[in-house]
Amino acid sequence: MIRTLLKEVKEYKRASIVTPLFMLLEVLMETLIPFLMASIIDYGVNAGDIGHIYKVGGIMVLAAAVGLFAGMAGGRYGAKASAGFAKNLRESMFNHIQTFSFANIDKFSTAGLVTRLTTDVTNLQNAYQMILRMFTRAPASMLCAMIMAFRINARLSTVYLVAVIILGIFLFFIIRHATGFFQQAFPKYDELNASVQENVSAVRVVKAYVREEQETSKFRKASQNIYNIFVQAECNVIVNAPLMMFTVYTCIILISWLGAKMIVSSTLTTGELMSMLAYCMNILMSLMMLSMVFVMISMSMASIRRISEVLNEKSDLDNPAEPVCEVKDGSITFRHVDFAYKKGSAEPVLKDINLDIRSGETIGIIGGTGSAKTSLVNLVSRLYDVTEGEVLVGGRNVKEYDMDSLRNQVSVVLQNNVLFSGSILDNLRWGNMNATEEECEAACRLACADEFIQRFPDKYHTHIEQGGSNVSGGQKQRLCIARALLKKPKILILDDSTSAVDTATDGKIRRAFREEIPDTTKLIIAQRISSVQDADRIIVMEEGRIDGFGTHEELLAENEIYREVYESQTQGGGDFDENSRKDFHEKDSRESGGKRSTESSERNAGEQNGKRSTGAFGRNAGYQNGKGGEA
């Protein structure tokens, strides 16, 4: 665990080595000064030798200057080493997280990862600096002072030795007891960060439902938990200070009393007593610094474990020894595929999936919430690995491909659409960093995004706020589709990516796909049958199994679930954009050679406001609204 973290020192090894050396030099100078002070008193002041005072005083000034320089240099290099260590640690953690599969990411909460990258790394940074400086300085200062004290008077120095042993025993029990509280504190930080993150990201919902008071209460509770734990920990640690001061003053009194007796009996000089008192302070202050280091280390041990968990987490997905870098075509095959999110799960999410999809086909996927539609398509781009069976893309097992090459040819518009802060062009170029503005505009026209972008004052240079908060849900979905199209993939997966788009625009997007990218295999997950009924074939998912696979007409005739959902979505008689959809479907019917009648298309478009039946999909409440998430 410690070895894993020390690898991140890297280019700051020199600063990490130099810092303790400067600390040792500072300690030597500080240890020398009481010895020189005793010489001035005994051989200069008492003997009336002004020359000796000047000579030894000059050496003291020089020693103090060297000690000051060493302390400043040690502080500078210590700060550089600890800050650099923290920087490397954050970079390594962040880079390592990027290699995680979805399964790895599922093990850690978002708030937990943020806490580890911030609070935990800061704890480690502080602990590392204290180790380089105080953990070197304190034992060295204590040892040097003890040696000098025993050199002056061994009998009197036993007072220090006894005090150090007693204090060491007390400190051990104090720190041991406090460590348990510190270990409890950092998981509580995860809860606090989760509360903040959830509240800020969903602030519109909080305000819409007037839940500010409840959210404030939840935050206060999380904050109070941290407060209570740290108060308990500090109540243990704070005992250290009065105990230390009691020991310091006890030692000073004993040494003064015993030393005065020795001076009277001529077994100790006045200068030596002054040196002994100075070394007493050095020894006990060093012990206090050492106790602070141990407290800091005990606090950071929990952080060390949490950071090591991230750095030692091995990705579930690895490239093969000799990966295939070219995807031949967009054909997809599932052979007896089972899949579970957790290994050893009694009930898999997908069960015995068998599919053969030809390159260039448009495949609709429909099913209730929790029917594993998203899980199915996630296996195509190898975001997860199958538990049993195999998935083939372009005739080869996805495990044979270089993952970057495979994912560059499988473009996915995920269920949760995410835009990043920056211009619209910046977001679009996530699909292709070298795309020209003309290529971006062409992709946006396919995704029906160009029409609203042109209405913005800055058009494609319009700034997008973090998370796309300054565009609507439908606009965000269309931008994400355009971003995916810029990759010019062999397979395009749309995971319920037009749920916030009106049906007329949805139809335009589907027609553009059919006409402009006919060679791209398209997998379209939808809750509305009108979004998939024109597909070459449609998959009906039910409880992790394929309940039906065929054309719209075949499924209407043969599949009970599909027929029930179709009927439930066509009973309402239309929605707000019925006229626009009528115009579109009439035009689409003419252009596609009368494949679908306008009358049929209009019937299928009434799903948004139509009442839902309680058929097979009625068991899944999320499907009832023609929308819904994916488990």
Defining traits:
single chain, 631 residues, alpha/beta, six-stranded mixed β-sheet, four-stranded antiparallel β-sheet, 12 strands, 60% helix, elongated
Structure commentary:
The chain has 631 residues and is an alpha/beta fold. Helix content is 60%, strand content 10%. It is built from 21 helices and twelve strands. The protein has helices spanning 2-6, 13-45, 50-98, 102-106, 110-152, 154-201, 203-208, 212-237, 240-264, 270-312, 373-378, 403-409, 424-428, 437-446, 450-453, 473-485, 503-516, 552-558, 560-569, 578-591, 598-604, and strands at 332-339, 350-357, 362-367, 388-393, 396-397, 410-413, 422-423, 463-464, 491-495, 521-526, 537-542, 545-550. The chain has a six-stranded mixed beta sheet with strand order 6-9-10-3-11-12. A hairpin with a 2-residue loop joins strand 4 (388-393) and strand 5 (396-397). The longest helix has 49 residues, at 50-98. The chain is elongated. Mean pLDDT is 79; it is low at 573-631.
